[in-house]
Amino acid sequence: MKKKDIIELKIQDLEFPLKGVGYYENKKIFVKNAIPGQVVRILIKKVRKDHAEGKLLEVIERASTEVESFCEHFGNCGGCSYQTIPYEKQMKMKADLVKGLLDEAGIMGYEFLGIEPSPEVFAYRNKMEYSFGNEKKGGELNLGMHKKGKFRDVVTVDHCKIVDEDFNMILATMLNYFRGKDVPLYNNKTHEGYLRHFIVRKAKKTKEIVINLVTSTQITFDMTELVEIMKNLNLTGKLVGFIHTFNDNIADTVVNEHTKVLWGQDFFTEEILGLKFKISAFSFFQTNSLGAEKLYSMVLDFMGDADNKNVFDLYCGTGTIGQIVAKKAKTVMGIELIEEAVEAANKNAQMNGLKNCHFIAGDVLKKIDELTTKPDIIILDPPRVGVHPKALKKVLAYRAPEIIYVSCNPRSLAENLIDVQKAGYKVKTVKCMDMFPHTPHVEAVVQLIKK
To answer: Angle at Cα 143 formed by Cα 123 and Cα 124, nearest 5°?
Structure first.
């Protein structure tokens, strides 16, 4: 077996996040987006001494457990790769993968409480970030998601099932408008053009919607007509803001170099567990609002009686968790790197009448040295890369009696927990929350007790 060979393979196992595992010529072969039971045709991309990696070309034989896909974009769009797996089995696969990673890392003696399902399996997302592009070079303008396995190609997803119909209507309206205009698409190779991204955010409880068109500054385009079209759409929700973000950064990501409010406001309001949160255009917020309520309820359960306890909320974002736990804690102190998020957190706390929590901006690694209060409980909710080893060392040096770790990446969680165990903490309880049905992603909440 060598690079560029095309082989057929039976997928026998699964590794996180969604790598099918098969065996060929006594080598372990990893195939992204393949699931156990499938027979697949793959292109060998890498060959190493003890394993190889292949690109999925075709599913020759489906697994006996698979069902029909529910979305017309399946196989073309790169999202929702689990959708041919019945939902109950999806959850079991995710829970097994998380437990497998922790067990493999040597995490011992904990109680595993399984996985909680998402309150909604369809139309659960409150945010979508779409890209302008085309499926083939020089083809018709599209607006949607990157094509499966293709970094530069974009397919329109105007019948997506993990968002509600307002998203699809807004997307289709925006696309049809620009298909009728002579406006250049931004080219990620030459870095020339105008149209780049389009972001839609809609609150689950208040139904408020904010849309954000992201372009370069290379031409000047009058948005007046487009704003009026969007304002007059017959939506189930309520459009409260249309903003325009200018981004000349060469990376194919949304970078806020300057934002202009074309109409309305640049934020929407969401409600979580009885509290209100103003969420600005670029603030991080869990994309599954109802799932977030269940996730944060797990944190509250793990906290137990905390009326006389001081809580540190590290990597706090807009302070959602911190404010929710403030209702049953003595004090809450949050730290977050992004200043805009911290400003929003403090404003939201004031709006919710919470006087026992405060949020500061800065790197956790540095700011944690400035805190003088001794924490009784530390809540960690880091980004996907996990807690930096140096920051984790400082966190553990507080010797807080309890730590609650909220993770969106089980692999980095397992790596962090190795160091946590060595520092004298016992992993008491682990519970998963499915925030992202039909995808390989999963959240986990871990309760840690100082020995």
So the answer is: 10
